[in-house]
Amino acid sequence: PPPLWYQAETNTWTLLHHDSTNSTEAPNNLPLGIIQPTEYVQFAAQLQPDDLLLLYTDSLTEAMPASGEMLGSEGLLELARRLPRGKPGAFGHALLNAVDAHREGAPAEDDQTLLVLHHNASDVPFRPVRKTIRAIGAMLGLAGD
Question: What is the spatial distance between Cα 108 and Cα 93, in angstroms, rounded to a whole number?
Fold first, then answer.
């Protein structure tokens, strides 16, 4: 599902979408591990200090009350807009509680994961070149940790 993006400068929440120019007919953007090989669309967004980015599994957007209407991405976005922002961890818990309330106390029917990223405007810590090369090698499968 599309990430939720809080832009601190304008005090607004939006769904972070990308312009897809992927014209391949092969399956893409499937859930991880369903079909090998699967291609995934990548895109970039320029975050500013104090922006939040929320990444989550579809269990949150598929949350349903007894009436049976799924929350959806727009519903999750609306819940986020209603909550005070405070600290990222507290905000994440508050959003999960709001989703539970929408579900009217029923348990999630699938895995439920939420990741709240906060741009804190800190400088990137110094990392020796040797460690950087080792990390890139590990990501490429060329070396161990």
Answer: 15
